[in-house]
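User: Hey, my collaborator sent me this sequence without any context and asked if I could get a structure. I don't really work with proteins. Can you help?
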Amino acid sequence: MCYSTRIQRGKEMTTTKRLLLACAAVAAGEFAAARVPMFAEAWPAVAVLALLVALLGHAGGFRPWPWAALALVGASLFWAASCEQERVYRKSPWLRDARRRAASESAVPSLSATRRDFARRVSLGLASKREIVRLNQAILLGARANLPWDLRQTFIGAGTIHVFAISGLHVMAVARVLVFLLRLLWLPRRLAETAAVPVIWGYLALIGFPPSAVRAGAMATLACLAPLFRRRPNGLVAWSLTFLGVYLVRPTMIADVGCGLSFAVMLAILVAGDYLRDHPEGWAKTLAVAVAAWAAGVPIAAHVFGRVTPGGVLANLALVPAAGLTVYAGALGLLASFVSETLAAHLNNLSALFTQAMVVLSAGVAGLPGANVEVPRWSVPTCAAWYAACALALLLLHVRRARRRGALH
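Assistant: No problem. I've predicted the 3D structure and written it out in structure-token form, which is a compact way to encode the shape of the chain:
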């Protein structure tokens, strides 16, 4: 690695660390505020205190002042959003624009018609496979209400119900399909990725802007636009900016279980992927990423639902790739339906094949003893201890790798 590349990578790591610390500070402040909501009316005083900490810390050379100030900002924003004057802030243009909301509400009928048309196109060639059609509509269009109850319980038991929440897996698959098709038109990769951004947000509008999909869309947008500004896509930076955008604009989301689970699992995947960047692709790397994602979600599931699903690690090794192939084939079939419904039917059947594999895999894992265990709900200190242990394990692995590199040099 040349010297200039090392300098550039070092600067990127410093920026990433600072953004991650900023995310941790904001989350800590909002979480602490959520534990003591009785101080909501005092939010202006906390905001002033944050300003004083920033000014005095900067003047006095107090190095942790940015993180302390951000924690206080997070607390004041949470209390401001949850106090009796919440309706005043929700009318502010930067939080909720009434005219924009009215415009979106007027567009609902046409979007509903478009959703019905897309649901029909997803089902082309699958007239005899109604359950598979419902699963494909759920995984491609976010229509989870149509999931059959027995199949829903099968995926819950295997710890794989998350594949039906439109998230990074789905949005990135759609983005890659779009970029692939645009590259077939001889567009340079940079322009193809830029052109995919408005289509991604059109897809999110079609499925109703579910929160998990919006977060994934924001991260995909940052990744796609990075080459346009001659920047290398950085998943951790995109995650951090999306995290700050969500929790600063909507601080009460700190209490949303789905939001926290989505961000925690995505961070674990990104950290594991970054750590294993130099390792060759294979089952060992896939297993490490699956374990990291599972470990990030365990405390949240145990704290909220009183349930731990060790079988999810085994199931996700095969199910997540199968879900990705379902989305790829389904997205291609959806786009092909505008050209040839016969071609779309073939692609939909290919997508159905992968969906059926998902059902078989989930049913097999759910039937294993110990795959889904009910536990007493974990306390907050227990969850903190789990994450601290994970962080310590990651630190030890990092030190070990650094020593190994030192020995090689």
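In plain terms: Residues 3-35 form the longest helix (33 residues). You can pass these tokens on to your collaborator as they are.
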